[in-house]
């Protein structure tokens, strides 16, 4: 295996979170009650990313050296996400009947004011002795000139602003009646929900390049004029960082309207609507030590999307629509072996719709390369079977074991359609596609216990553990070929272990969370060597909460105490596609609650 490009990235990130929840409950009388649930949250993320790397003239193996072009890049942006939600509901009792009503409105938005999406500096001359060592955690070997800012000049800058909103309105009604069936307690329940969701995105892009035609001298473009000192990079030498303010000052001398990029601005704009009409019937019956629940759910979906595509500079308006219906039966059974032990079994059916990102209607075709969403994706469908046993350990503990099997159709994965159909003569045609079928089966184990019968202070001790062991088999097809893969994003082993202690004032938790490696992205159907897989990870976290008063709580959280890395490999775990280190993070909070 040989490497074509090597890139280092350093992130400086600042995050602010705030939120407010205000709920009202009103009990009009014994038969009627009303509630209002409100939520507002705001998340502000400020990111400065410096990148430095090389592109080898010829792909190289570890230990080799040769010519390479060097580059340095900057991204500097601020993004604010806001969520607001309002739910108004009621409950009414009329004899054996119970009526629940609910109406909701929610909106999420993502706003990125005009910012530097990318500022690229290129080496003025090729570097002649560039190479790397270690395929798993590569280290760049290159002459010292690579770290001299006088050897890089500004090539282009891309500025961008983006505004996205996602709004959902829904109404819901549930009606239940309790009665007796042959002397056994029973309940019949039915209801429906109407949901209307709209998501739109507006992006504006400006591409600054060919600076010499606008009176900018070669001397003014040297990185030495935009240097912000050396980057504190923990994975090896990095060299100079880039000052966002210095780049902004240069752009301020130019007429912004002359650099408007209509292609990138239009292709990223879209408007998508998803209407869902759902209804269900459910019946519950208790017979001696048995409880049976049988139900049928219907979901009808109408999807519409509008966007813009670009084919070699020519714009095309795109529209897509898709209607589909699903009938989803389910059956649950529970058997009480004794007062502390019960068996559970279930057969259920589920549908998972593709994300709006996967359904995006825009596309870019440039020569023999194409990239596009797929608004014609089918939703994932799954039939699920579960069987398990639960045993309660006194009043504060439980142990359980469940086996499960899922028969999945139409899972979604990244795909390259080049060489097939209308993309026959393309080198790349990257999009999303539906897989054929997948099977997922496994075992879930869980245990939790509070040792409240022990003498103080041991009566505050807590222990919790759970693990899931699974296997998956999936198949994909393209270009008349097929191959078997693991189900994307599915780890074979996932486990959590928690040790804690608590009383009325203080709560302490130390937890370890593990997940094994998994398939992240599927390459072309005939190119498994370039599939991307994420390595296994173990995170250790600590939380502490203390009530200063009955209404005021102090909290502390420490995450990723062991500085677990994120590693993506291609083809084999020995070959790096992406390696990231984050370090631990800490959060201190104060919560006031008053009723």
Q: How would you characterize the overall build of this protein?
A:
The N and C termini lie far apart (64 Å). This protein has 3 helices and 32 strands. With 595 residues, it is mostly beta strands. The strands form 3 sheets. The chain has a 26-stranded mixed sheet that branches. A 4-stranded antiparallel sheet has the order 26-27-30-31, with no helix packed on it. A two-stranded antiparallel sheet has the order 9-10. Helices cover 3% and strands 69% of the residues.
Which short descriptors sum up this protein?
595 residues, mainly beta, 26-stranded mixed β-sheet, four-stranded antiparallel β-sheet, 3% helix
Write the SSE topology:
Elements: E1 3-27, E2 32-60, E3 65-94, E4 97-123, E5 127-133, E6 139-141, E7 152-181, E8 184-209, E9 227-230, E10 240-242, H1 244-251, H2 262-267, E11 270-287, E12 290-311, E13 314-338, E14 341-352, H3 356-359, E15 363-366, E16 369-372, E17 380-392, E18 397-409, E19 412-416, E20 428-434, E21 437-450, E22 461-478, E23 481-485, E24 493-502, E25 506-515, E26 518-521, E27 532-534, E28 537-547, E29 552-559, E30 566-570, E31 572-580, E32 585-592
Distance between the termini: 64 Å
Q: How many β strands by DSSP?
A: 32
Largest sheet: 26 strands, mixed
- The best one-word shape is globular
Number of helices: 3
- The proportion of residues in beta strands is over 45%
Percent helix among the residues?
under 10%
User: What is Rg?
Assistant: 29 Å
């Amino acid at each position: 295996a040989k490497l074509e490009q090597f890139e280092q990235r350093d992130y400086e990130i600042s995050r602010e979170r705030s939120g407010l929840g205000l709920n009202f409950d009103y009990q009009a009388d014994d038969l009627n009650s009303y509630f209002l649930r409100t939520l507002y949250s705001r998340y502000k993320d400020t990111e400065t990313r410096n990148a430095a790397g090389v592109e080898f003239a010829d792909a190289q193996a570890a230990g080799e050296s040769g010519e390479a072009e060097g580059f340095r890049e900057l991204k500097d942006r601020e993004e604010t996400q806001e969520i607001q939600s309002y739910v108004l509901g009621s409950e009414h009792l009329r004899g054996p009947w119970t009526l629940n009503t609910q109406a909701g409105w929610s909106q999420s938005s993502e706003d990125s004011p005009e910012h530097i999406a990318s500022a690229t500096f290129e080496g003025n001359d090729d570097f002649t002795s560039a190479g790397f060592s270690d395929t798993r955690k590569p280290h760049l070997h290159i002459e010292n000139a690579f770290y001299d800012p006088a050897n890089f000049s500004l090539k282009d800058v891309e500025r961008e602003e983006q505004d996205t909103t996602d709004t959902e309105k829904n109404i819901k009604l549930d009606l239940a009646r309790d009665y007796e069936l042959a002397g056994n307690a029973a309940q019949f329940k039915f209801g429906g929900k109407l949901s209307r969701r709209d998501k739109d995105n507006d992006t504006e892009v400006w591409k600054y390049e060919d600076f010499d035609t606008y009176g900018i001298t070669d001397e003014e473009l040297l990185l030495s004029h935009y240097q912000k000192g050396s980057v504190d990079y923990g994975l090896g030498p990095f060299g100079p960082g880039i000052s966002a303010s210095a780049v902004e000052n240069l752009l301020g001398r130019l007429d912004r309207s002359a650099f408007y990029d209509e292609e990138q601005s239009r292709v990223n704009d879209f408007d998508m609507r998803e209407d869902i009409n759902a209804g269900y019937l459910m019946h519950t019956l208790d017979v001696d030590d048995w409880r049976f629940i049988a139900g049928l759910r219907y979901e009808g979906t109408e999807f519409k999307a509008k966007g813009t595509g670009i084919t070699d500079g020519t714009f095309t308006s795109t529209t897509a629509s898709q209607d589909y219906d699903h009938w989803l039966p389910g059956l649950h059974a529970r058997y009480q072996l004794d007062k502390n032990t019960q068996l559970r079994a279930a057969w259920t059916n589920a549908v998972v719709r593709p994300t709006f990102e996967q359904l995006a209607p825009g596309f870019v075709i440039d020569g023999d390369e194409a990239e596009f969403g797929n608004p014609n994706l089918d939703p994932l469908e799954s039939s699920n079977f579960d069987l398990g046993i639960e045993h309660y350990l006194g009043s504060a503990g439980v142990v359980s074991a469940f086996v499960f099997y899922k028969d999945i159709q139409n899972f979604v994965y990244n795909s390259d359609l080049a060489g097939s159909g209308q993309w026959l003569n393309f080198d790349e045609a990257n999009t999303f596609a539906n897989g054929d079928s997948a099977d997922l089966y496994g075992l879930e184990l869980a245990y939790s216990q509070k040792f409240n019968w022990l003498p103080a202070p041991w009566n505050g001790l807590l222990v919790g553990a759970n693990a899931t062991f699974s296997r998956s088999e999936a198949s994909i097809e393209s270009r008349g070929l097929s191959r078997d893969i693991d189900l994307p994003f599915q780890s074979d082993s996932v486990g959590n272990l928690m040790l804690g202690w608590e009383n009325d004032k203080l709560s302490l938790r130390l937890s370890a969370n593990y997940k094994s490696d998994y398939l992240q992205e599927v390459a072309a159907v005939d190119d498994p060597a370039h599939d991307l897989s994420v390595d296994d990870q173990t995170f250790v976290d600590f939380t502490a909460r203390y009530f200063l008063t009955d209404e005021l709580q102090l909290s502390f959280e420490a995450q990723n105490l062991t500085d677990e890395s994120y590693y993506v490999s291609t083809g084999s775990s020995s070959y790096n596609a992406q390696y990231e280190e984050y370090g631990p993070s800490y959060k201190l909070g104060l919560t006031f609650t008053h009723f």
